[in-house]
Design a protein that fits this description.
- By secondary structure, the protein is α/β, with parallel strands linked by helices.
- The chain has one domain: HUPs (Rossmann fold).
- Helices cover 50% and strands 12% of the residues.
- The chain is built from seven helices and four strands; from the N terminus they run αβαβαβαβααα.
- Helix 2 links the parallel strand 1 and strand 2.
- Helix 1 packs parallel to helix 5 and helix 4 packs across helix 5.
- It is globular.
- This is DUF218 domain-containing protein.
- InterPro entries: DUF218, Rossmann-like_a/b/a_fold.
- It comes from Microbacterium pseudoresistens.
């Protein structure tokens, strides 16, 4: 292959890579602001009660993997310091012998230093079950945040709208989207969302 052809091929590869990253960032940003509620309930007599629901990811070993570490950190930074917050960690034994929720909790406590209120949901094996099983744990919250990779969190919010529209009205945005953060994870999550949408049409 001649040098000019190599240069053109390299340039095309760079343009394609930049386009893929830009698309993934757009999907992530857009997903993080969709399917939110009409407004969280406000309370004047006490702090607003907030539930931050973190959706787990398959984890084979005892230590949280890269994706679960990101999700926990995103959940922790989503906590409103002015609210009475509870961290709700979801996930059963999908890929390993230990529930994902337990692994998430250990990472939050031991490695992130979280000392606040925490509740575990350890039976679910799918996103639908995550949301369904979390409902009894979040019913009393005035504001609800569902946190994961942004496209996955959007699916969780969609499921809550189907299962409990009254609770979905209390949905507010989490803080999972930050420009330039965990770009490889964003690309995978955006592609998975595309596959999920295409499959849903069948």
């Amino acid at each position: 292959m001649r040098p000019r052809a190599i240069t053109r091929a390299g340039l095309a590869s760079v343009v394609a890579a930049v386009g893929l990253v830009a698309w993934a960032e757009w999907v992530d940003a857009r997903s993080s602001r969709r399917m939110l509620g009409t407004g969280a309930r406000g309370r004047h007599d006490a702090l607003r009660r907030e539930a931050v629901v973190v959706l787990g990811y398959g984890n084979r070993g005892p230590r949280a993997n890269l994706i679960n570490r990101f999700r926990v950190r995103a959940g922790l930074r989503s906590i409103d310091p002015a609210a009475e917050s509870t961290l709700v960690l979801c996930g059963g034994t999908v890929e390993g012998p230990e529930p994902e929720a337990v692994i998430l909790a250990r990472f939050a406590r031991d490695e992130c230093g979280y000392t606040g209120a925490l509740v575990l949901e350890t039976e679910s094996r799918s996103t639908w079950q995550n949301i369904r099983n979390a409902i009894p744990l979040i019913e009393d919250a005035d504001a609800i945040k569902i946190v994961s990779n942004a496209p996955h969190a959007l699916v969780g919010r969609e499921y809550l709208h189907r299962l409990r529209p009254d609770l979905a009205a209390r949905l507010v945005a989490g803080e999972e989207h930050r420009l330039g953060e965990v770009v490889p994870i964003k690309i995978v999550a955006a592609l998975r969302m595309l596959w999920f949408r295409l499959r849903s049409r069948d």
